């Protein structure tokens, strides 16, 4: 599996290097729109999942329902695209389907399922900051897959983020060991998920560049991985609760069904925007986007849900974000040095500045500064 991931990455890197640069303004506008869509779905789904858990306290079963709806929706959209364009959609044979997609699917199901499960125990602010540690695991998996080289700067990034994480959770009134460990485990598998997903979506011969096709192929693996856990931990309760199969009225059943369907639609939109963003941008853009998204989510959580955040917690948050920011700067520095040879450094710098300007405006609007 590790060998296949490395081969995938080499192929996608060669393709990305040989492709001609796109017009700057078009690239900035398109990627800015992608980031806006990603922000909207991600922040909205975070708050909705926290609310849904109080209505339907079975996070694993809820995630299974979301996955089923996403698969059906992806199948419907693929059928419509095939009918409209009169061209068949990609169907992976079993061998590449197992080797190239299984890791993304299994890791993705655990990432989403464990994240939703943690909402039973911890606040949105603590969840958001803990989940931001995923960048550490993405970095570690990149080293394991030999996508990144081992450097002292990477150790500094890991130490900053880890220290910030400890400070943020220090004496938190909402701290729960079990919930914290669930999010931390979700962050770990998230590293494997996005490392595998990036190289899979950028591999031309797989034909999974379209997010609809990627979602369609990934969902079965996600359902197979999460279903046993849902049955073991929640099976009996789901079968006997008034929130599901033993609803005492049609209104209660429809309310539950509506909440699950609404969450599934948001989850589909989020996954669609994530795969689209991964395919069209670099990991630098994703990291920078994540920095501002975490700030916005934490601030909104403190305002909407009155999540308590102390001065030490804020110091921890900015320490963690400074580590992520250092990773972004180092990443851009390496890209810039490589692109000097091809006379594209100015264009690349302008792109990054453009992304930062767009994201800064979004963050300020959400925080009410301007």
TrEMBL record:
InterPro entries: Sugar_P_trans_dom (IPR004853), TPT_transporter (IPR050186). Pfam families: TPT (PF03151). It is found in: Membrane. Its main location: membrane. Keywords: Membrane, Transmembrane, Transmembrane helix. The chain crosses the membrane at residues 32-52, 58-77, 124-145, 152-170, 176-194, 253-272, 314-332, 352-369. Residues 31-326 form the Sugar phosphate transporter domain. GO terms for cellular component: membrane. It is a multi-pass membrane protein. This is TPT domain-containing protein. It comes from Macrostomum lignano.
